[in-house]
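ok so for the tutorial part 2 we go from a plain amino acid sequence to predicted structure tokens. step 1 is just haveing the sequence, like this:
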Amino acid sequence: MNFFLSFFYAMKKIITSFFCIAISISLTAQDNLVNSLATNKSDSAKAKFQFTSLINLENSPVKNQGSSGTCWSYSGNSFLESEMMRNGKEFVDISEIYTARCAYIERARNFVRMHGALGYSDGAELHDVVMTYDKYGAVPYEVYTGLNYGTDKNKFGEMQTALEGFLKGVITNKNGKLTKNWLPAFIAAIDSYLGKVPETFTYKGKEYTPKSFAKEVVGLNPDNYLSFSSFTYAPYYKSTILMVPDNWSLQSVYNVPMNSMEDIVDNALENGYTVAWATDVSEKGFSWKNGVAIVPEKDFEDMTAEEQKKIFEGPQAEKKITAQMREDDFDNYSTTDDHGMHIVGLAKDQNGKEYYMVKNSWGDKNDYKGYLYVSKAYFLYKTTAILLHKDGVPMDIMRKL
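step 2 — the prediction. this is what the tokens look like for a chain of 401 residues:
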């Protein structure tokens, strides 16, 4: 990749990374940031969209990831919490930052093994939640908050800059050979920011380790979860590497035709399964304040000023999405792997058009108290991956994998 392309892509990642951060400042300032980067907002949007719930699997509280790029952990753990309750277990507030801490360690290993030819940041993929759960277990939030430096919300800017600098120092050292000390030193740096993880802890009167807590209390089998996406460059119904920078663990997804992603989500919801969702939110048709994501039929730059102001003032015609459109936008960086959320239901507007009900992790200061309604056109166009229990996948698709 030449310098100019590298620079362009780096700037794109800097801009879109803001969308994986629920800014820990006032609502007005947060809205201004989101709108300046992605969308307009309309004071009349909620009044002019009339949503009727068709399926609602919402069953855990909305959280706030603060100033951290840990959307993948919040959405992934919200998904695991829903899976627990679907299996008849009591709600447990799983520590998202414990999961993130474990992923930072694994990502550091890969960063050093790859001689630094791998991005280092807060970001990761939904499948990394399952991977870290399998390897490191889980702990309740009350045991590990990650708030070890005087804040009441995550604020990871200094920490991640320091950790990245540390890793770059490791791979560029002049000794000619790495020692075994670098990883314990890296973990000690994480501990100084997020706090040490207790070897054992007590929860509801019983003592656990993170591994035993995952097995006995959370009780989910990591082998039951599958990831899917849709790309024309890879064979359908085969596994392929998810080609996004935050896939530091180099894991695969099953590649299916575009419309099969919609079939998978619909089937899952109809059968009581929620879905973790990775997507691009740096779009003019995405409005966090209004709680709506759509794909207007006309490109934003082709609209009049008056049309631009009315994007969210009620239902409108949307583009017909094709697999080639998806591929083109992915390949030219118009679709980037920005954010992770949790699909928990299905609704329709006053015209009968269907939308997915999506739980976010930016707090509850939007028109739908932390949720938003995503049109199926937006889902098809901007999805980068989904994660769900294998039993939520239609049998005709499972037989083809």
